[in-house]
Amino acid sequence: MEQLTKKQHLELYRYLRLTRALEDWIFYICANQNPQKPLIIGKGYLSTGQEATSIGAAYALEKEDWIAQSHRDFGALLIRGLTPRELLLQYFSKETGPTKGRDANVHLGHTGKHVLGFISHMGAMVPVANGVAFAMKYKKKKACILAFFGDGASSQGIVHEAMNYAAVFKLPVVFICNNNRWAISTPLEEQMAIKNVADRGASYGMPGVICDGNKVEEVYQTVLKAVRLAKKGGGPTLVECKTMRMSGHGTHDRAKYVSDQEIASWKKKDPIMHHEKLLKKLGYADEAYFKKIIAEVKSEVEEATQWAKNQADPSIQNQLEDVFARS
Ligand SMILES: Cc1ncc(C[n+]2csc(CCOP(=O)(O)OP(=O)(O)O)c2C)c(N)n1
Ligand SMILES: [Mg+2]
Predict the structure, then answer these.
(1) Which positions ≥6 away from 133 have C-beta within 8 Å?
(2) pLDDT digits 0-9 by tens, 8-65
(3) Which residues neighbour 30 within 8 Å (Cβ) at sequence distance 6 or greater?
């Protein structure tokens, strides 16, 4: 196992804090904005409480690798190099944002930063990730792609087909299932009859591994192993990250269907709290350091908001640009 350096541990902490701050802010805007003149059109989809899954997984990648993100992967997008400014431009539907105001919230991609364009249909990103992996293999590139999806999406036929196909052709793809126990209001028990999504790995002919999705270093180590296997031609791995969605499905949803007990028990396993404890135990950081990072990311988010708010809205004249392909 490759140990993370102090610098990497601290960098992961910053990503955790930045993601939390950015998403708390999006939640706040959605809850408090004037509905007649909204800054955020539509809803926010947050990774609150499960940030370590996305961050730990994406941290195992190198520049030439790709991600096929799901809708709670802001952390991974930040690691791929998207900035808070860009992510807020997207949320504010601005002309200079990743989708030029044509699409909302988490429905974005960035080819230059190796982030596939998000497909809203659950599970549909997974075979597209296979396509990228197939191209990497065909071109003999030493790179791989992470395909993120949720426990709910894991029930989709298209996900099973994609995992089977990737195993047959030993594609350099790592399947990351963020098992956050809920698919909107459907609990895990109504989603699958097996205990672990990872148990399915064996039936496709690939390793299926489980990790604690709230421990960023554990997710990183698990995914790194799978990434290395994929890059040396060993084929895919199914990684199941056990975590919990600590917010509603979207900012419109107060998740009344989740018991207070369930929330309380997962609060104790908060990924940021866990990482703070680890940093203290390793002697890498103390309370003063945490306070400094919290203040830094807060001002980064505030600065990005002020800047992004003032960017141009899409103009009516160019609404059809980038919508249809030109031959
Ligand atoms: C094919 C399809 N069916 C339904 C939806 C509506 N929908 C959006 S997110 C979601 C739940 C997904 O749950 P999960 O995969 O567990 O991801 P999570 O939201 O928990 O991260 C559903 C049903 C959709 N986008 N696509
Ligand atoms: Mg889920």
Answers:
(1) 144, 145, 166, 171, 172, 173, 230, 236
(2) 999 999 999 999 999 999 999 999 999 999 999 889 999 999 999 999 999 999 999 9
(3) 40, 43, 44, 251, 252
Sequence-distant (≥ 6) Cβ neighbours of residue 243 within 8 angstroms: 49, 50, 52, 53, 178, 179, 180, 181, 213, 214, 271
Please answer whether residues 219 and 56 qualify as being in contact, where contact means their C-beta atoms are separated by less than 8 angstroms: yes
Helices and strands in the chain: count of H runs, count of E runs: 11, 7
Query: Would you state the CATH architecture of domain 6-311?
Result: 3-Layer(aba) Sandwich (3.40)
- Quick check: 33 and 112 in contact, CB under 8 A? no
Contact at 8 Å (CB) between 97 and 79?
no
Q: How many Cβ atoms are within 10 Å of 203's Cβ, its own excluded?
A: 12
Ligand nearest to the CA of 152: 1
* Cβ(180) – ligand 1 distance below 6 Å: yes
Distance, in Å, from the CA atom of 3 to the CA atom of 39, rounded to the nearest integer, reads 43
> 80 in ligand 1 pocket by Cβ < 6 Å?
no
Q: Which sequence spans correspond to the domains of the chain? A: 6-311
Question: Which atom of ligand 1 lies nearest, measured to the CA of 153?
Answer: 15
CA separation for the pair 120, 190 (Å, rounded):
22
How far is residue 16's CA from residue 23's CA, in Å, rounded to a whole number?
Answer: 11
